[in-house]
Amino acid sequence: MNFMAALNEVASKNLCVLEEQIRESISEDTFIFEACAPLFKGGKRLRPMLFLLCANSKNDFPQKKSMPLAVALELIHTASLVHDDIIDSSKKRRGVETSNSKYGAQIAVLIGDYLFAKAFQLVAENNYGAEVSSTLSKLVKNLCVGEIMQDRSLYEVPTLGEYYTRINLKTAIFLSSCCRLGAIVSEMDKREVENLTAYGTNLGLAFQIIDDLLDFFGDEKITGKPRGGDLKSGVITLPVIRALEVSDEAPTLRKIVTSGKDVDAAIKIIQATDAVDYCRTRAEAHIESARVNLPLTLKTSVALALEQVADFIVDRTR
Amino acid sequence: MNFMAALNEVASKNLCVLEEQIRESISEDTFIFEACAPLFKGGKRLRPMLFLLCANSKNDFPQKKSMPLAVALELIHTASLVHDDIIDSSKKRRGVETSNSKYGAQIAVLIGDYLFAKAFQLVAENNYGAEVSSTLSKLVKNLCVGEIMQDRSLYEVPTLGEYYTRINLKTAIFLSSCCRLGAIVSEMDKREVENLTAYGTNLGLAFQIIDDLLDFFGDEKITGKPRGGDLKSGVITLPVIRALEVSDEAPTLRKIVTSGKDVDAAIKIIQATDAVDYCRTRAEAHIESARVNLPLTLKTSVALALEQVADFIVDRTR
User: Fold this and answer.
1) Which pTM was predicted?
2) Which of A114, A134, A147 is facing B110, going by the closest CB pair?
3) ipTM above 0.85, yes or no
């Protein structure tokens, strides 16, 4: 379930404590706990694990000091998913009924707000300093701007630049912030901080490109989501942008994607082009950049783990 | 419009700068600005003004240092209103179309999130320290818990204790936090901090009791809201709790308030009791407590202004 568990001793040493402290962070109030606990079932814990790996990649950073921030990152991620599910009116996520479906939009808004606030409380009360708080608040702001951008341009074909801006705001900044925060708290030097940030950015771009590819061509049984969901809801991603550029049937495809109807026909048109290879090649190039940016000063075991995370990102099937 | 403008030199000196910096805080992104600017039209600026008054109530606290936190408090208040309007499906607030009605729940969720995040960013980047951040994050958490409590017990008659818990979480903690933060940043001593906090708590309790009274008996032309709105949406407040205790028609009233139907009849039943006087007396007692808690060490001009705020709270008609 948790892909990182087997990665290396940093990851496995931290995972149980992380799970325990996530539960603890939501247990102040009985209803909040009942409503939130299911939200943390499943999930790869990619964000806190990236942070913990980076925080221990050169200097050792004590678990006790790192854990509240790791929890805060997962709380922020989960809060944004809860609010996303309102936005998408999703009924299920990771096989579990969404807060929106279970309690209505009202309570779902508040549960998300609670998780955001709890994350900022954890950070404030554990004295990480202003740079950490500022990175986190900017990260949340960027998630909002990315999501607003997406919501306001549904059924419109973005340029490649617009697509990249969106996935950067929605995903890459989050992963790069996790890496950056790990480097900051463990007091790495400025260049190492920038390099680990660049590692995270490229990881995030690759992650989202693969996600967008899986939405079209993933195995529904493994992803747990019906194919072409993005297109149905008007979100136009890289495979479409590429196919529109190279397909003979571009006019038909454009009609489909700007209406969200007949998604199966769109998938066939995209499949007849080089879009899948094109997306994979782009994702792999980002993974290569991520790898190149890993500072040479890292401990071998953690560097290896960070490379394995990168490999996982392109090889994943869900 | 802004009741505090005429209060004293602290208030009037700060108000223009506050308005300017609120606008500045939302102008990073064109759409965000367009969507948010109307949200700040109207409003009493009670929270930032309380903070600014307290921050200057004994020692002078430089405007440049206090303003970002004042802005953050108004952003948090506004964010919570934006999310409340999703919860209540409100079409208008302060005569302006709500984000929920204008852009849909999706964008409204994100606008609220953006404002919360921006508030935390302002605080992080202006080095107020961990206690300030922690107070703010707990405040947001409490707003959520209070609102969840309310949403989960609609059409149920609360005990007096439950009513007080709810209005404390929803309103009083916010006002007391504003006062407390003012005392903290201007480095008042521990006892003064606690006294100003108690002033704020009592102010907040009185504020909410009067608000609940205005919902039934306010002049619709002045409040801008139809009478009995709370009751229609299932929120049962102090006038009802009192009337249920003393009215001969309590069984009828109970039927009405647990169904939300025939609100006009409920208003008549409540009006025939001492509920209005009872609520006013309670609110006035809190105002008296607020006043008593004002530290004697405050500057006369600011102490006077804080007393005037208290008077405003019980005398207001909207």
Assistant:
1) 0.93
2) A147
3) yes
